[in-house]
Amino acid sequence: MKVLASIVMIWFSTVAFSQQIPSLKVEELVAKYSQAKGVVVVNFWSTWCKPCQEEMPHFIKITDSLKSKGVSLLLVSLDTRTVYAQGKIKSLMQKKKWKANVVWLNETNADHYCPAIDNEWSGVIPVTLIVNPSKNYHRFYESELSKEELIKGIEEAL
To answer: Domains of the chain by range and CATH?
Structure first.
């Protein structure tokens, strides 16, 4: 009985831990950044993606420094449901001390969600989308971005 109680407690804590990061369908995600005010840098990444992790610190630093200009960062995890449920996304964010708005894309069919984000997306990551809904600005980058490329993209969107 104690073993069963322990398993139930571990399961509930895992579910509660993973729920700290919102789960969104692609339509909800698109609505979220399409209705935002200012410039939104939407970065698609995964916990297993080394180039994603390498660019993350400058994404966070640059967007934080531009908050007063209306720039925000939205990190969209493409990890599996298991990784999400086990709290590994949140755990990595905490381990790396990354403080940013992060959501998990609750989708498994790239043929559905990739074209909903951008028709040019082949499915590779990292991918970044810079949008400014008030200017109808939408720029898609299917590659890792340097600090300079990110700053230039944000400046164009402003």
So the answer is: 2-157 (3.40.30.10)
